[in-house]
Amino acid sequence: MKTRNEIINDLENRLFILKFTRFEGIEAEQALGSIAGLEYCIKRHKENWTIEQFKKDLEKQKSDGLYGDYIDGWEGVLKRNIKDMERGGIGI
Predict the structure, then answer these.
(1) Which of 6, 18, 51, 60 is most exposed, with the fewest beta carbons within 10 Å of its own?
(2) Using an 8 Å Cβ cutoff, are 33 and 70 in contact?
(3) CA gap 54, 60 in Å, rounded
(4) For residue range 76-91, what is the model confidence (pLDDT) as tens digits?
(5) Domain of 75?
(6) Virtual torsion, Cα 9, 3, 41, 36, nearest 10 deg
(7) How far is the C-alpha of 21 from the C-alpha of 1, rounded, in Å?
(8) Which residues contact 32 (CB under 8 A, 6 or more apart)?
(9) How far is CA 29 from CA 12, 13, 76, in A?
(10) What is the count of structural domains for the chain?
(11) Residue 49: enclosing H or E segment and its boundaries?
């Protein structure tokens, strides 16, 4: 079971690794979306967002109808963040 601080540390570690990894083509766009998503999740965790707020935000993203590799990276981070919160019972 992860605490909120452990989730933040995990997100920060993933962000660090992504920032120093080289990608090309489609992977580069997805990596940029993932970096933005990680920064977003870290900021929101520090604001003590609940799991419901993250879910609502993810649904809003989907309903906006945006698509592409950047958006796929962003949404992937939000989905994993929600799963981590569900497993840890954080923000419920």
Answers:
(1) 60
(2) yes
(3) 10
(4) 999 999 998 998 776 6
(5) 4-88
(6) 30
(7) 29
(8) 70, 73
(9) 20, 20, 13
(10) 1
(11) none
Measured CA to CA, the distance from residue 62 to residue 75 in angstroms comes to 8
Q: Which two tokens stand for residue 73?
A: 């990276």
Residue 21 contacts residue 31 (beta carbons within 8 Å): yes
Q: Which of 61, 62, 69, 4 is nearest to 30 (CA)?
A: 69
Q: What is the full per-residue pLDDT of the chain (92 aa) written as tens digits?
A: 778 899 999 999 999 999 999 988 889 999 999 999 999 999 999 999 999 999 999 999 888 888 899 999 999 999 999 998 998 776 65
pTM over 0.85: yes
Q: What whole-number distance in Å separates Cα of residue 34 and Cα of residue 42?
A: 12
